[in-house]
């Protein structure tokens, strides 16, 4: 009898159905010589300080360096403490019974670092020593699963992957637990969470936000001219940028008084070849979905995971934009399959069969998994967001196998009196991959105009002339797409040239973890969304100011760890050495943080409005009375808006806040209102037209 363990029940059922294990039992399926069971994601994780007998945040206990690390069953919060998840305990018992009953194990958890860790932690926790093989597949189609079972791999081949996953897990524990406790002890005012990847990511957002705010916007002026030749209208713009509008206006009048003509002084024509984009890796898909669909990285990952489990796309948590040579033969079948999808038909008519571009094939650039692809199973009933993400992946495949786009770019220099002007034009000579969507310029670039036939010495009349007011642009606030790019290319921003070369292709986090890192920053109330931009909260900036010059916020160091973990995965480095380095680092940052001096903001001393005896405790998420009998409480995040200390003070002392703008109802509609304290000391909204309604739970 062989045991098979999948990451979740849905995948287990797919595999069991193919293998003829059709008899349903509690927590597993059996039949035809197989027992197929499943985990529910991470059933086992690293123990918390309490599991080592350390309770609360105590300076004397730091740094906490477990030896050995303890594994515990997943915990859930109950009342004010954490207890073992009963569902996890039950399933673990079933897995143990299945393993004990079988001679060997086939590991069918997701084929990646996290999937490997999920199984190995269970295997280690159960003290199992049965031999195991690995099912390594990139798609859940019947064909892929059958091929995977025909080519099972020795489990030992993935020891490097496990040690890398374990190293990451332990490093996150050592840095996260120690740094969070150290800063929280020093702050003495609630919990300040820090993390190995989370904190450098917060630093990226805060630095960009502050650079944006500090930027001094300057106005400048250019002259724009409109010309006509051969029934084609085109514009030229002055090369000079005037800071003084009067000078620009005077120049315009001078040009108008002198013939109102321009002369072509030079023409430069060059041919530009734009190669098609490569296929999507997960980060690429998340960036595109954020730009085009305004989806968060987490939403895109969840949609892609759903499409994968429905067998419509290949494994989404990939870091590669390429496919191996042996997959190239399957590409025409995938493209033919799209003929059944209505909104792909027009794009398919542009495909040049027999002339596919092989740029996406590169065995050396394929990591654990190849790039994101569709499967031969074409979806029919998806929701709007799933359809949009699926189409992105399908259209990217069609673009990637198309020919290059060639353009003729023309730069024209013109002169009016002694003032220089330029005009830029573009002519598509071979549409290539850009014909798939019919878009011939990138979204963030200005479309280039058509130009008539021009030659040096041509004199053109000025049909219209105007002064354009422009302004210098500050560094753009990060969107999620921009932040993902910054995380992906963190190594490129390093100032030291040698370090930058070594780390140029290394980012912080991995394609599989970046979405959850961003979501953690939201959960911790360190960042918030402002339209499409990510901006730090008051608390996020406070943490950044405390740690910005410390090792824990160092992007380069985090990128170096990613490189070290990659080496462990490839059996080029020893996991024990990495852990020793992380322990040394944990000691160093703990001491550094414990020596931090925090200038505590002068919080107002407010007396509870209800019991009128106790001083209120003010935290970043809550304001509450310490008297458990009184139990007055006011949450500081109301309908998506953080309530300032000044408004809390006004509510407690005057019974009403200032007008709060930009709150969001459950239906997603924005509204403005006052928060008022009623006679029973509960709060409600008061609108400017004096309409009010009570809020449940304040």
UniProtKB/TrEMBL annotation:
Its EC number is 5.6.2.1. The lineage of its organism: Bacteria, Pseudomonadati, Bacteroidota, Flavobacteriia, Flavobacteriales. Belongs to the type IA topoisomerase family. This is DNA topoisomerase. Coiled coil: none annotated. Residues 1-141 form the Toprim domain. It catalyses: ATP-independent breakage of single-stranded DNA, followed by passage and rejoining. It comes from Algoriella xinjiangensis. InterPro entries: Topo_IA (IPR000380), Topo_IA_2 (IPR003601), Topo_IA_cen (IPR013497), Topo_IA_cen_sub1 (IPR013824), Topo_IA_cen_sub2 (IPR013825), Topo_IA_cen_sub3 (IPR013826), Topo_IA_core_domain (IPR023405), Topo_IA_DNA-bd_dom (IPR003602). The keyword Repeat does not apply. CDD domains: TOP1Ac, TOPRIM_TopoIA_TopoIII. Transmembrane segments: none annotated. GO terms for biological process: DNA recombination; DNA repair; DNA topological change. Residues 158-590 form the Topo IA-type catalytic domain.
